[in-house]
């Protein structure tokens, strides 16, 4: 939504439906978007603003009011899949607020008789070790913060949301991270990790997170990929329309194919593509060019959502 030229919420919902997209993620409880989503049948991951985490954590009544304002009025007509307390704040100055904010939001939802899971969305910065995937572990900084969160998620049988970007791994180290491995186009195994072979970086990142969850004693917590994508321009290594088209179509085919990952075979991976639109109020460069669509709702490149 960080653009001054984007279509109206009603137009966006119509575009989702025309493209057979059944799920979306909102980064903040925008009332216009929530109103447009009423009766649409689209499943919604609803996020809190990062700057609200401290108050959500420290003041239960703030969480109660947040739920009363942003969830209760829409709960009968919008299909909320998760409430997402904060995005990519672990590790960091807001990290310690995430778990108590989750608890207060959960209590507020229960008090309102709403059965909506509460979780948080993390970047792979929470991992101190990510290679090879079997050695994945939370960092010394993130580990103490993640421990109660993933324990809570395990008890509630709620997934952890993780933002997974092979693009950034490739663009920051193109000599060592091969483009075909990042784009799902490698012919054969690229990384052999014990008995498991990896032919794409997406699976390796997801399985590194699963390894970290196992080491934290929470092997039953599932991973939802709450962001992934590839920029179509903006000057970064590999930021081309052709690569973006290849990545996003391949990731869709992969996650919907039900093959899962080497560590978790045979399971669809709930995955959200970032982002719907190119956003002109993002920082200049690749950040402005992660959209699947231009603000006029024409395709940046074709993506097949029908499979």
pLDDT averaged residue by residue:
97
Q: Provide the β-strand percentage band.
A: 15-25%
How far apart the termini lie comes to: 27 Å
Secondary-structure class: alpha/beta
- The count of DSSP E runs of length 2 or more, i.e. the number of strands, is 11
Report low-confidence residues grouped into runs of 5 or more.
Answer: none
- How many helix segments? 10
Q: How much helicity do the residues have?
A: 25-40%
- Biggest sheet, spatial arrangement of strands: 1-2-3-4-7-10-11
Largest sheet: 7 strands, parallel
Shape: globular
Compressed to H and E, one letter per element, the order equals: HEHEHHEHEEEHEHHEEHEHE
Rg calculated over all Cα atoms: 19 Å
Give a quick set of tags describing it.
307 residues, alpha/beta, two-stranded antiparallel sheet, single chain, seven-stranded parallel sheet
